[in-house]
Design goal:
heterodimer, A: alpha+beta, 2 domains, 6-stranded mixed barrel, elongated, B: alpha/beta, Rossmann fold, 4-stranded antiparallel beta sheet, 7 helices, 10 strands, 33% helix, 29% strand, globular
Chain lengths: 396, 230
């Protein structure tokens, strides 16, 4: 019986190709929109999350604004911060701007970063060639630097910069290593928003001496066990409050994990909102299907009457019309699925993010369209099943 | 005469037409035995279509008793009525009522689908029926590829397919020319000779004369006529 109903439904759809196509279009658009939106937004989310996970997981950033009396953090503060339980290291981050000179070639206004050995220890792949900065560089305020490919290309064209020298702010520095471009983007620099093409890193102690600053305002705290992040933050707050005499707004702690969490929550909300808007198209499509089914019922009144005269029970008739509307919706869902995946694939390629098949999207697309078929097919199918066979037969 | 398969007592049917009730059947009494070929003869508006609907269990009488094969029809629910229509009654309509998208064979199979006969047996039985009405070479034709007479034969094959107690024909020759109509009536007679009980409703006394018993219906009243009347 089911097989016959499916066969009949298929025949009816095929016989009204144009009408079926137009009816199904609403569902196609709805499902396409839902699938491509979900896939693209999830792709973006994965991209952002994985970047953050690479760069920001397991550390918190501290920005110390200081007070008029105490303008930043000292080496002692850093030491006490690094002694907090579950903290694996503290990396200060100084930034100053200077000119860089090599063989008469001048690069003006280059951002110079001051870092310590902890930073390099926590980014083992950071250096492509040469060596990272080490604790000895810090203690003896060595005049060494790490440069990126852009600087190397500009100042050391055609030669290996490692162990060569350059001038930063008039002082001669030895190039210790080259940054691996793959992992250069650091979350803090991303946040600062001024990631320049040129990048030079020197020991933070050297940087402090060079700029004549006695305190540190930005630092990163590496956490060995991220399940204790909250406890570490509490301890850091305590130390910083003591340092700055409990003055308001003297420092800020940025927990990158919680930023990722917030961003994920926002993305989820955005996905839900977008999918919600897209499902309006599905609703409209569903009404289209209902309309077509109602037309179909009145067109086939005689057929319904005849079937009843031949022994069809109301539920047989209802089932047949229901199957037809589910069939139509699923057909729309299927084309929507293909179109949606195609669009999101192209979009992902265009944006440059990984295309990942979202099972949620597929499930939603197919589930929604079947649901639409059942919900919007129900009333017409019921109407058909309730037709009085005499009236139905008389309308010849 | 065989045993009684159909009994109607004081069947009244009224339709509510706005303010007033219109009485279409005014107390019909009718008994049909197995193997009869009954013609119900009456002009249009006499209530014969309403009578046919009630006999075919498509409609319910307002009052009165209708017993078909020992079952009181007023006591059956929708599902049981569907089953009775399926198993006990073979409908033959004036306008054939074939589904245009199905082949002759598939049309004949329809009642068998609703009685849940497995596909292979269904096909076999439908083929037998089409052979019986002389359409062995037209099984895979669609209704619009068949002549009126052939279409009516498909409809007859369909009516026979579930081996019903009763063949119920409503103006079976109404849409056919005289010659084809005559052929269809001869087929009816043949079927009756094989033992099928037939009730045929018509306004044409020539057609009615093919039956072996005639009742006349006029203004909602039924009376026995005799063959000479026709």
């Amino acid at each position: 019986m089911l097989k016959e109903s499916i066969k009949m439904s298929w025949k009816n759809i095929i016989n009204n190709k144009m009408r079926s196509f137009l009816t199904v279009l609403g569902i196609v658009i709805g499902v396409t929109a839902i699938i491509s939106l979900i896939t693209i937004v999830q792709g973006l989310q994965n991209e952002v999350t994985s970047r953050f996970a690479d760069l920001g997981a397991g550390k918190i950033a501290v920005q110390a604004f200081g007070t008029p009396l105490k303008q930043g953090l000292s080496d002692n503060n850093i030491k006490s911060l690094s002694e907090i339980e579950n903290v694996s290291g503290v990396s200060p981050n100084l930034t100053l701007v200077s000119s860089v000179v090599k063989n008469g070639k001048v690069l003006e206004d280059i951002k110079i970063e001051g870092r310590n050995e902890v930073f390099f220890r926590n980014s083992p792949d950071f250096i492509a060639r040469g060596r990272p900065l080490n604790i000895l560089d810090m203690e003896s305020k060595n005049k060494v630097c790490i440069i990126n490919q852009a600087v190397a290309k500009e100042l050391f064209l055609g030669e290996d910069p490692v162990d060569k020298t350059l001038q930063i702010g008039g002082t001669t520095y030895l190039v210790a290593g080259i940054i691996d471009e793959e992992v250069t983007s650091d979350v803090i620099t991303l946040f600062a928003g001024n990631q320049s093409d040129y990048r030079i890193i020197i020991p933070y102690t050297t940087a402090m001496g060079m700029a004549g600053i006695g305190s540190i305002n930005v630092l990163e705290i590496y956490i060995s066990d991220t399940s204790y992040t909250d406890e570490v933050i509490e301890q850091v707050e305590l130390i910083l409050n003591q340092t700055f005499n409990f003055k308001d707004n003297s420092f800020e702690i940025i927990n990158l994990d919680s930023i990722v969490d917030t961003m994920n929550t926002m993305n989820d909300m955005m996905t839900a909102v977008l999918a919600g808007i897209a499902s309006i198209a599905l609703l409209v499509g569903g009404i289209g299907i209902m309309n077509m089914m109602l037309v179909s019922v009145s067109e086939r009144t005689t057929e319904i009457g005849l079937r009843k005269a031949l022994g069809a029970e109301p539920k047989n008739i209802q089932l047949q019309f229901l199957i037809e509307s589910i069939f139509l919706s699923l057909l729309g869902g299927f084309f929507g699925l293909i179109l949606g995946l195609l669009i999101s694939y192209l979009a992902c390629m265009g944006i440059g993010i990984d295309f990942r098949l979202s099972y949620l999207a597929i499930f939603l697309g197919v589930g929604f369209s079947a649901g639409v078929g059942i919900i919007f097919g129900w009333a017409p199918a019921r109407k058909a099943s309730m037709l009085n066979p005499i009236d139905a037969l008389r309308s010849v | 005469m065989g045993k009684e398969i159909l009994l109607m007592q004081d069947i009244v049917k009224t339709y509510n037409m706005g303010d007033e009730d219109q009485v279409v059947l005014k107390g019909i009494n009718l008994s049909v035995d197995e193997g009869e070929f009954l013609s119900v003869l009456g002009p249009s508006g006499s209530g014969k279509s309403t009578l046919m609907n009630i006999i075919g269990c498509l409609d319910m009488p307002t009052s009165g008793t209708y017993i078909l094969r020992g079952r009181n029809i007023s006591e059956q629910d929708q599902k049981q009525l569907a089953r009775i229509r399926n198993k006990e009654i073979g409908f033959i309509f004036q306008s054939f009522q074939l589904l245009p998208r199905l082949t002759a064979l598939e049309n004949v199979e329809l009642p068998l689908i609703y009685s849940k006969i497995p596909p292979s047996e269904r096909r076999k039985r439908a083929m037998e029926m089409l052979e019986k009405v002389g359409l062995a070479d037209r099984m895979y034709h669609r209704p619009n590829q068949l002549s009126g007479g052939q279409q009516q034969r498909v409809a007859i094959a369909r009516a026979l397919s579930n081996n019903p107690t009763l063949l119920l024909a409503d103006e079976p020759t109404g849409a056919l020319d005289q010659k084809t109509g005559k052929q269809v009536m001869e087929l009816f007679r043949e079927l009756n000779n094989e033992g099928h009980t037939i009730i045929m409703i018509t306004h044409d006394s020539n057609i009615a004369s093919y039956g072996n018993r005639i009742v006349r219906i006029l203004d909602g009243n039924l009376r026995e006529g005799d063959l000479k009347d026709a």
